[in-house]
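In keeping with the milestone schedule agreed at the kick-off meeting, the structural modelling team has produced records for the first pair of proteins. Each record is given below as a sequence line and a structure-token line. The laboratory manager (R.T.) confirmed that both were archived under the project's standard naming scheme.
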Amino acid sequence: MPRWHEEQHIAEGGRAVTILSFGDAATEHARKVLPAFPGRRVDWLRLATNWNGASADTLRRRLSAARVGFRLVLVGGEAPVLSARAEAVAAGLLDDEILPITIGSEARTVYCAHCHSTHLASVGIGQVTACPTCTVELVVYHHVSRHHGAYLGYMFDAEER
């Protein structure tokens, strides 16, 4: 199973690149990416640190205007980068058209396999977090869903019940 954070490449070519950076901490990292796209039109949008409705609307507008040759670079914390990546995949972008660059993973988005909700948690892979929606204690599994932009969480004592 490929690891989403190991996908540190983007397809060659392309005519237009949009860089989305999340928060001030991502600014310097995004600035270092700019020279990688000489001769192409590059837009750089600086967004809030966390993924929110305004971030989603901004990305959706950009994706609706995208044409063949569009590339997307996402720079920021793991949770907003994964959320933006999921939004881009849902809009039809291919993995090779998206470059995710994470600069921290202090909070992870966890998908509850029991009630199908997601939540942010400061938890490591293999650790347990409680789902705020259904209160089930979830083990955070290493699998990341491209569609939910979240790590899979499943009931930690499911085999014992």
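The second protein of the pair:
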Amino acid sequence: MLVELVKIAKFPWSPWLAQIRTPFGGTMVRWCGDPTTEPGAYHVEWTVDEDIVWGQNVKPAAESGPGVRPGGHCVVLRGRLGPTEDGVAVLDLDGTLILLDVVEPLPEDAVHMWVELFIEREKIALYPYVL
């Protein structure tokens, strides 16, 4: 996914964090690239380092369409949920697929549903890459 890197910051209690913008919102998440990276447009891969539990950190979305926004001390990602056969799920975030580890099987009616994930910002990572 192409994101706009606004800035990178480090606080004593956190890893390097990137403030980013997308066409459908922005937030701060963990940056796994060079901390001296200059602001600009970067292709990134998203990872979520937290187990997904239906009804706790993933819920049906009130509206459809992709979204990225801050939510207190967490980040809210809105996308379409797609379970796979091997015990993981995939969040489709505007064509970018993010693999998710699920604790228990997702409800059958959750397939292709618009959902919101509520994840601590330090547990969402962006890995920049060059095409």
